[in-house]
Amino acid sequence: EDANIGAGTITCNYDGFFKSKTVIGKGAFIGSNTALVAPVTIGEGAVIGAGSTISRDVEADSLALTRADHRAIVGWAKSNRDNKSALKAKQGNNKKR
């Protein structure tokens, strides 16, 4: 009741064998693109930061968020492409034999 559930939020409630329950308390605010991993309870008036993955209960009137530090590895994308291209070329040569 009176909760806000942001766009793209999902409740992950099935582990392949059982379905579990997610409870969202009155007046809670769930930021966009949040994953709520059941079983989990979001307390009344709690705020969840956008993009978070919540797998533990959040107390009433608390702020919960998950964030990894931003990390940019310079040159990684080119190195990865070069490595994958070389591997693909090697596999292609093996297929011709």
Describe what you observe in this structure.
It is a single chain. This protein is an alpha/beta fold and 97 residues long. It has a domain at 4-68: Hexapeptide repeat proteins (UDP N-Acetylglucosamine Acyltransferase, domain 1, 3 Solenoid), CATH 2.160.10.10. Helices cover 21% and strands 23% of the residues. The strands form 3 sheets. Strands 1-4-7-9 form a 4-stranded parallel β-sheet, with no helix packed on it. It has a 3-stranded parallel β-sheet with strand order 2-5-8, with no helix packed on it. Strands 3-6 form a two-stranded parallel ribbon. The longest helix is centred in the C-terminal third of the chain and has 20 residues, at 76-95. The radius of gyration is 21 Å and the shape is elongated. The model has no long low-confidence stretch (mean pLDDT 94).
List key phrases describing it:
UDP N-Acetylglucosamine Acyltransferase, domain 1, four-stranded parallel beta sheet, 97 residues, 9 strands
